[in-house]
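User: I'm new to structure prediction. If I give you an amino acid sequence, what do you actually give back? Let's try with this one:
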Amino acid sequence: MTQRRLPRWSEFAPLLRPRQVPGDRTDRRLARAATIRDLRESARRRTPRAVFDYTDGAAGEELSLDRSRAAYSRVEFVPSVLRDVSTVDTSTTLLGRPSALPIAFAPTGFTRMMNHEGETAVGRVAQRTGIPYALSTMGTTSLEDLAAAAPDARRWFQLYLWRDREASRDLVSRALAAGYEALVLTVDTPVAGARQRDVRNGLTIPPALTMRTVLDGAAHPAWWFNLLTTAPLEFASLRSFDGTVAELVNQMFDPAATIADVRWLRDAWPGALVVKGVQTAADALAVVDAGADAVVVSNHGGRQLDRAPTPLEQLGAVSAAVGDRAEVYVDGGILDGADVAAAVGLGARGCLVGRAYLYGLMAGGERGVQRATDILAAELRRTMQLVGVTSVAELTADRVRLRA
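Assistant: Good question. You get back a string of structure tokens that encode the predicted 3D arrangement of the chain. For your 404 residues, that looks like this:
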């Protein structure tokens, strides 16, 4: 029979280790987030439904988004054991320059809608972390203001081709004058995707004060306070538009763009040229032939053509076709540092992440973006150690496979 006794204080005291809790409410909230999915849940609670759904949602039935995330669940790593992984180097080169992680912050539109700190917060984290950040044509911070806020960041500028080519040319000139190192031409948006969550929520830019948004605002007073007490929410490159996202895309973007426009941009831009939205090996070869230095295998995060090819599943064919003629990146569905490791092993030079850092931004502004980045970096480092590699270069095809 078990004999019981009262514990001595000397035995009990060492077990009492109260958790060190940050004093600031935002820091406490972010400290509780162990994964990007935790940040997503925090973001959902802190932002109006229409804003969260704009970030979180995709086109049609959202099959492309679901398949992109499901593809990473099929990844199987092949580890080696008894390797010295006490020191791991997560750095690589992107467009020939050092990057602390095989990650770039993807371009996202309307970023100050998610949190009033917006693109400048993302740029400062990119500068501090040592990774590139691509500012969107549809951003809410100007090329020049981002350059002033993060002068030492690796700044890329994402370009949509507008019907007004002179306006596009002006943006290219401004990017060059402001010291941006690369253009990221997005080619998968001839017309707007059918983003049903935005339709159901009646999302407009800027958000309209309907009865629904007023009621939602009662549950998110901090978000509305920040929106109404900071600079007006508007497009930094287009100040006169008032309507839905789909209306803007269909009015401004050029559905007649062709491969000739890639050649035109190559002639007009002296820096690195990245073409984003490639989904087949044939298209990847075409844009590389037209002068692209890198391609991004992407279906726009599932936000354009639903049932589009899944980027991770296309990555191998595109990488094999392009070879060493250009760098190959991938985006879509990346919510974990292990996803980054898998993509690199399957042929990507690096990954563009968008929703992951936006969840952080919505959860806690610049500190939330930093928390998202720290989570991804820690997960990547741990995955590399468990796989048995000490550098990103060792994440090769023999280390990663996709289960059938």
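You can read the tokens as a compact description of the fold. Here is one thing that stands out. Residues 57 and 197 are 7 Å apart (CA to CA).
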